[in-house]
Amino acid sequence: MKSVKVRELLKDADRLRLKLINEDADLDRELREIDVNRPGLALNGFFEHFAHDRVQVFGQGEHAFVSSILPEKLQEPLERYFNYPITGIVFTHSNFPPDLFLEYARRNRTPVFISEHRTSKFINVFTDFLDAALAPQTLLHGTLVEVSGVGILIQGKSGVGKSETALELVQRGHSLVADDAVRIICRDGSRLYGYVSQTIEHHLEIRGLGIISISDLFGAGAVRMNKRIDLIIHLEDWDDKKEYDRLGLEDHTEEILGVEIAVMTIPVRPGRNVPVLIETAAKNFNLKSRGHNAARKFQERLSRMIREAAES
């Protein structure tokens, strides 16, 4: 089963608004559960079904409880509580744990964090972070763009024009997510999301120009950090010997991380405006998603006309 070490939380500390307060803690403990645990029952001595393998979240209520009990009365429940191999503890609302609590945590090298978030906000952000970290993922070569709200992964051999196409799409008001290396994560077992590479970020390599920064040239509105992948478009050099789809009646898919994604192939040759074709593909995809299939309607109308002509 996939796991994430506790130290990975610190890499996203800005979003989680986390601060580690015991520096000698064991940060190599592993998180395997997306859900969190509110330890109110355990602190009152009820440890049946105690989810010690989850991050323990101390909200206002739990913090008030451990802060109001006299140290001599708190010692026994803390002794039992920290006998479990707890992966990590988070106090929300910037609340600081009592000295005795922190002493037990340090003795057991249990990581203790403080978050500025209110409890519900922290749980939402944390579960989203862990869901992405524990989800199946892969790295694919290609360029991910958002066109008319549709996440399109453009693929093709090197030199076919993926980056140049993305540049033209950005100039036409669409957004770049990632170029060259796209990190893809499967969420909920049915949705694929593409993420920008932290190394490449929002840069494009354009032959003859070199490396350019899309965010610097076109502004923050021209880039996105991630986008759900709805459609894959393969660009390939035009092959006169190959039969290309001219009607659009057949739907093709490609499987990535167990998820089927709609796919189409666009042949490239001088004179073909590939960015406009991709814009049209995105709009047509939106129409199909709403149940409007122009190719099928055309076929049905043509069949009806032929049938009526034969009957007359």
From TrEMBL:
It is an enzyme of class 2 (transferase). InterPro entries: HPr(Ser)_kin/Pase, Hpr_kin/Pase_C, Hpr_kin/Pase_Hpr_N, P-loop_NTPase, Ser_kin/Pase_Hpr-like_N_sf. Keywords: ATP-binding, Kinase, Magnesium, Metal-binding, Multifunctional enzyme, Nucleotide-binding, Serine/threonine-protein kinase, Transferase. ATP binds at residues 156-163. Residues 4-130 form the HPr(Ser) kinase/phosphorylase N-terminal domain. Residues 267-272 are annotated as: Important for the catalytic mechanism of dephosphorylation. It holds the Pfam family Hpr_kinase_N. It comes from the Bacteria. One of its GO terms (biological process) is regulation of carbohydrate metabolic process. Residues 204-213 are annotated as: Important for the catalytic mechanism of both phosphorylation and dephosphorylation. Its cofactor is Mg(2+). Residues 133-301 form the HPr kinase/phosphorylase C-terminal domain. It catalyses: [HPr protein]-O-phospho-L-serine + phosphate + H(+) = [HPr protein]-L-serine + diphosphate; [HPr protein]-L-serine + ATP = [HPr protein]-O-phospho-L-serine + ADP + H(+). Mg(2+) binds at residues 163, 205. The active site is at 141, 162, 180 (proton acceptor), 246. GO terms for molecular function: ATP binding; magnesium ion binding; phosphorelay sensor kinase activity; protein serine/threonine kinase activity; protein serine/threonine/tyrosine kinase activity. Its EC number is 2.7.11.-, 2.7.4.-. Catalyzes the ATP- as well as the pyrophosphate-dependent phosphorylation of a specific serine residue in HPr, a phosphocarrier protein of the phosphoenolpyruvate-dependent sugar phosphotransferase system (PTS). HprK/P also catalyzes the pyrophosphate-producing, inorganic phosphate-dependent dephosphorylation (phosphorolysis) of seryl-phosphorylated HPr (P-Ser-HPr). PANTHER family: HPR KINASE_PHOSPHORYLASE, PROTEIN YJDM-RELATED. Belongs to the HPrK/P family. Homohexamer. The Walker A ATP-binding motif also binds Pi and PPi. Both phosphorylation and phosphorolysis are carried out by the same active site and suggest a common mechanism for both reactions. This is HPr kinase/phosphorylase. It comes from Turneriella parva (strain ATCC BAA-1111 / DSM 21527 / NCTC 11395 / H) (Leptospira parva).
